Amino acid sequence: MLAVGTVAQEKGVYFYGQQNPNVLILVSNDRRNKDGVQDSSCAAENMMLAAQSYEIGSVWINALMTICDEPQIREMLDQYELPKNHIVWATLALGYPQVPGKLLAKKTTVVYWV
Fold first, then answer.
1. pTM of this prediction?
2. DSSP assignment of 58-86
């Protein structure tokens, strides 16, 4: 993933969270799928929720969606056997947090029934 950081910096894309994660998941979809970004987003969110249920931290990294067709990046994705007609809509880094998270106070007045 070192090439990703280099290409992202060259292209002015902010890319963080990929430094030595326990797991890195690439969520992609066929670029011909008009709902590809929505389908991938649902899948990514469900993976993050599942990880949280096991007290595994996660972060969604978006950089690859804008640079996945750069030659260096596509070469790396080819090594992972990602289809050439896929866009990487999300990269998820998963690992165990260094410190436990804190639950936010529950808001009771945010839903209004009409």
1. 0.76
2. EEEE-THHHHTTSHHHHHHHHHTT--TTE
